[in-house]
Amino acid sequence: MALGSDSRHGMWSSRWLFVLAAAGSAVGLGNIWKFPYITGENGGGAFVIIYLVCVALVGIPIMISEVMMGREGRSSPINTMRKLTDMAKAHRAWTFIGWMGVIAGFMILSYYAVIAGWALSYIWTTAVGTFENATAEVATTTFNEFLSSPLEVVGWQTLFMILTIWIVGHGVSAGLERAIRLFMPLLFLLLIVLLVYAFNSGGFDQGVAFMFDLKFDQVTPETWLIAMGQAFFTLSLGMGTMMAYGAYVPESANIGSTVVIIAVLDTFVAICAGLAIFPIVFANGLEAAQGPGLMFVTIPLAFGQLPLGAIFGTVFFILVSFAAITSAISLTEPALAYLVEEYNAKRKRVAISLGVICWLLGLGTVFSFNIWSDVTFVGGLDFFETVDYISQNIMLPLGGLLIGLFAVWLLPRKVLSEQLGMPDGPVSWLWKLVGGIIAPLGVAAVFAYTIWPMLASLFNL
Q1: Which secondary-structure segment (H or E) carries 381?
Q2: pTM for the whole thing?
Q3: Is 345 buried (19+), middle (13-18) or exposed (0-12) by CB count in 10 A?
């Protein structure tokens, strides 16, 4: 039985609300531009197969561990790790897992809110017909002029933070659940609308070929590392989110099958996003650029060349904004839950305080694209790149690695039995092999792969 039968913050009203909430956390900006791009550039269908293997062997086991630990502790990630460390009679240093996840999530939210603000602004920019029959120069100039205006970017960042804090401040049932009930069905509906539109764009076959042709000749050892990294990062692992959300999961929910459904939904949205985006891009003979260039230059330009492009381009950025909000509320929850527990404070006051601090930290990201563009730190990275690198490339994989090891090798056997319904025997040994050896080794490989370029540049290796 869990240390506490219920969380003081509330509980998900059903297993399916947790599925939608966790899927909402996992489905973010990365699904919409990064997964489709790296799929097409790393073997198409061959990469999809490798990615699914990595999800099964790395992503799902780590997520099961994180959700299981959250449900056992029934607290914020920091207090959950304190309780579990005591239960396992392990060294107190293991509580660092909770701290690292909460801090990493907060750091990510600081710049995520800025980029999500870009998406919010593009709802209006696209709706007024800015990109109708526009040239590449117009699309590029529009984006660059927007980034060069700190006041404008801060305005949209502020709006996004207000929306996020308003939602999380209302608690699990009145805030998180209500937002998930609204945003997730709309997200799926908008995705279907864009898929239908893309199917009739004239470039659907080319988009499908880009993502699904089996190009095994492009597969290298690096492809496996990229796939493992994507499988880990796309499921929101290592940042305390799944541990915090796991604390609100009903005792009756089967963690294993629930996590599999979340992973399937996340992958489904990523694939559908690619099928909605790239046919439109290829129909206009454009290049599939990566990152902001794809989302804020190439895609608006592509919609602008098509009939009703302003309408469906607006739908696209509404979709992106919904995905960003569901991810942002999950990034806020771990830190908020800890402060409410630690200081017995009112949730709304804590939410506002966190929002202000996160907003202030996010100004560094805003200024990285204009007035601080020449300011660099270790490795020549600007403020935004530094925060992103430390949180994404160091803290998250390190947290995921430690979660996998702690859950499998240090938690008492009775916790695995009660939380996962896992009897002794072949199933238990398979769990130890996959969850305690293969998954941590996969995360360790990703960790080494992502930090090696930085180490090489620092020490001239």
Answers
A1: none
A2: 0.91
A3: middle
- pLDDT tens digits, one per residue of 56-115: 999 999 999 999 999 999 999 999 999 999 999 999 999 999 999 999 999 999 999 999
Residue 450's pLDDT is 84
Identity (one letter) of the amino acid at 145?
E
The alpha helices in 284-308, defined as continuous H runs, are 292-293, 299-304
Number of independent structural domains in the chain? 1
Q: Which long-range contacts (CB under 8 A, 24 or more apart) does 146-151 make?
A: 146/118, 146/121, 147/369, 147/370, 148/369, 148/370, 149/370, 150/366, 150/367, 150/370, 150/371
Distance of alpha carbon 304 from its chain centroid, rounded?
29
- Alpha-carbon distance of 211 to 272, in angstroms, equals 11
In three-state secondary structure terms, 458 is: helix
pLDDT on residue 1? 45
What three-state secondary structure class fits 7? Answer: coil
Specify the CATH number for the domain of residue 270: 1.20.1740
The residues pairing with 214 across neighbouring beta strands, listed in sequence order, are 44
pLDDT of residue 444: 93
Q: Residue type for 345, please?
A: A
Task: Flag whether 368 is in a domain.
Answer: yes
For residue 329, what pLDDT is reported? Answer: 92
299's CB contacts (< 8 A; 6+ apart) are 277, 280, 281, 313, 316
Q: Is residue 1 in a domain?
A: no
**181-230 pLDDT tens trace:** 988 898 889 889 989 988 988 889 998 998 899 999 999 988 998 888 88
Beta bridge partners of 44: 214
Per residue in 308-347, pLDDT (tens digit) is: 889 999 999 998 899 899 999 999 999 999 999 999 889 9
Structural domain including 425 reads: 15-459
Q: Classify residue 304: in a domain, yes or no.
A: yes
CB count in 10 Å sphere of residue 92: 10
> How far does the chain reach from its first CA to its final CA, in angstroms?
51
Q: Flag whether 2 is in a domain.
A: no
